[in-house]
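User: Round two. Same drill as before: sequence, then structure, for each protein.

Assistant: Same drill it is. First protein:
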Amino acid sequence: MAENSSKYYVPESSPWPLFGSIGLFLIAIGAANFIQQSTQFGQNTLRADGTWGQYVLMAGVLWMIATMFFWWRDTIKESLTGLHNEQLSGSYRQGMIWFIFSEVMFFGALFGALFYARWLIIPWLGGAGNNAMTHELLWPGFQAMWPLTTTPDGRTTQVMGAWGLPAINTAILIVSSITLTIAHHALIVGERGRLILFQGITILLGLFFLSLQVYEYYHAYHELGLTLEAGIYGSLFFFLTGFHGIHVTMGTLMLIVCFFRILKGHFTKENHFVYEASAWYWHFVDVVWLFLFVVVYWL
């Protein structure tokens, strides 16, 4: 295969994109039903007894894990057999850049929803400008403040402070970006021991972040009354932090795969784009968290 490396490699037909689409469909349908059922009838915990959504969601997650395993296996085989040349490497870089750009737009929409509610809708409901009549008709007792700790039906919640677990998680992600950069440099200069050490530290930091976020959600639900039912503040809080947590999970999984490939000696200083792409993604996730920490927790 190596003698054909000067030609652009076109991979064979693969079933994995179709399988991936099926998995994403199952996750979307299952998650939507699970969340919708778990917030009905004033429930204060995320559970969906007697519904099918949780089972579809779990099936979709397992399906996606299996799909990624086999898809990545095929891609790794292509790389190790010399099919990936400089031209294909350039295409991979362009693809990763556009993928991260699409993620920027995704989070931009989520932050846009927060800004729209906070700086436009809340003053409008509070009667700012020429909206005094609207204020009296829709919500006479409404006070224009953020975050909203009282819902229209009278439920109250507490605010998640910035200087507890969120600040710790911010420090964790900042340190993880530093350790990953050290590991990346070690790969380039050929220091295998330092590469393995700091790659492992980065993975542990990612897992620690996710563990603290799970505890933060438990604390929010059971001690603060901050749930998906807690009006627009609760919805946006879990929407933004939850999707970021999913991205941290994806990034951690990518780093774990790279870690095992490092142990097998798959990467060289000339050929390690998949590692570089994982690093790009991790740094992007860290930057998103910094914006999220400031806008959601701090301000």
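Second protein:
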Amino acid sequence: MARRSGGLFREFQEFALKGNVVDLAIAVIIGGAFGKIVESFTTDVIMPLINPLVSMAGKDWRTFAVGPGILVGKFLGTVLDFLIIAFVLFLAIRAINRFKRKEEVEAAAAPPDPNIVAQERLTDALDRLNTTMQSRG
């Protein structure tokens, strides 16, 4: 039983210390911090500008509710947070994809090395010569 748990622990340790898992953990932490920044941006910067348009009877947008407990204002703030985060991710992924396409085009457009082309031609010629000599001999 001790041998099994040691194997399980070792297996878990290998999994937890893989690069992808560590990268994912860092991304989750940064994402949480970014979410707080976006929430503050929405609450403290954008919504005060929109509040005069949205406010009803002198109420703040965050307290706008339909019936008891249905907080429409809070929900709209959360939707706005989501839209901002989704837009930023869209821009980031778009930039990454453009960079990848640019690298692919550069790699495809790079002319072949003349030395390599010459070596390939020489190798082909030697192969043909070898085949010819073997068929005659």
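The chain has a mean pLDDT of 80.

User: Perfect.
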